[in-house]
Structure formats: C-alpha cells, structure tokens
Amino acid sequence: MAFEKELAVIAARDKSGNVATYPAVETIHENSICNMVISPAEVENKLLQQANDIANETLKRLDGAGVFAIEMFVVGGEVLVNEIAPRVHNSGHHTIEANQTSQFEQHIRAVTNMPLGSTVMRSPVAVMINILGKREEPISLEGIDKILALPDTHLHLYGKSPRQARKIGHITVLGQNISDTKELALNARSYLAI
Question: What is the pTM assigned to this prediction?
Fold first, then answer.
C-alpha cells in the first residue's frame, strides 16, 4: 500500500479525562523536516473523522494531562498512527492565530484542570510554513516589513541562532481556501532573507 499523506491531530486531555481535539492537519515534509502545515487537512471527510476518532480514543487511554500531538499516515485510504508526542507541537503552532484557543493556552488549561477551550477555527483555512535556518549567520530582518504588510499573515521568530535546517520561526496565514492561502504563505516566506 502506498503512502498518501501525513496528518496530525493536536488534542488535549485534562486531569478529569475530558478531551478536546483540533481539526486534523496535513503536514508536508521536506528532507524529513516539517515544512508546511495545512488546516484543515485536504482529505475526504471519512479520513478526517477517522483521524479525529483515533485522537479521541488515544487520549482516553492515556493517563496524562496536557496537549498531545498524534501524528498519522494515510496509507491505502486508511489512517495509521505514526507517533504520539506528549507536548505542544510544531504541527499545532498555527493554532495561535487560527483557533479560538491556542495549543499553548489549551495545555495550561489541561494541566491546571481549567475547562478546555474551544478548538473552533477563526477562518476556513490556515497555512503555517516553517522558517528553517540555512547557515550559521545572524538573522537578517530584511523582508519582515513585506510579510507584516500581507493580510492575515503572522510572523513568529523564536530567537534561536540559525543553523542548517533548524526551525527558527514560522509564518501563519489565515484565508478562505487552501490554494490561495498556501500561495500567500509561500510568497511571505520568500520575502524573508534567512
């Protein structure tokens, strides 16, 4: 059976066992590093439901509280679990702008047993593109003004020293459809001279 796509579901479980899941995302990798996250994943509804069901069932079986990233593969029209990361995760960074409650706030809510927040998206689509270091030189701020001038485009730099393939930031773009939003995210990334 052929590999089709990689999906991820960010999910939270509080100390009382309540679970909240975010819409399944597609993660696109280059050289084994996550390059882009598309929310919601562009797959059939039955696969979205299967991914969500797997995430819910997984968290029901875990004792921990907090945010978990459940990474999955779509293979032969079925969703298979690849990895579970018990922490906030790069595949959920878009939730800062894209969802009513970010994965970071949700994690705090879960571990302190506050009510879990809404995971509803604020726009129909979000595309997050990682900013990877290319060389060990100080980050150039050239191009940031162009990125910040784009509609519904959000830049996050992590304050990390750049080096080859290190995640040093991300850009999240909110939009109405995947193709236009993806194009805007790629354009925004092209403006940044890193």
Answer: 0.93
Residue 17's domain comprises 1-122
Q: Same domain, yes or no, for 96 and 137? A: no
Residues 135 and 85 placed together within one structural domain of the fold: no
Domain check: are 83 and 169 in the same one?
A: no
Tens of pLDDT, residues 73-108: 999 989 999 999 999 999 999 999 999 999 999 999
The reply to whether 106 and 42 lie within a common domain is yes
Where b means 16+ CB within 10 Å and e means fewer, 91-114 reads: bbbbbbbbbebbbebbbebbbeee
Residue whose token pair is 């990798």? 29
Confidence band for 70, pLDDT divided at 50, 70 and 90: very high
3-state secondary structure the chain: CCEEEEEEEEEEECCCCCEEECCCEEEEEECCEEEEEEECCCCCHHHHHHHHHHHHHHHHHCCCCEEEEEEEEEECCEEEEEEEECCCCHHHCCHHHHECCCHHHHHHHHHCCCCCCCCCECCCEEEEEEEECCCCCCCCCCCHHHHHCCCCEEEEECCCCCCCCCEEEEEEEEECCHHHHHHHHHHHHHHCCC
Alpha carbon dihedral 154, 158, 161, 167, in 10-degree steps, equals -70
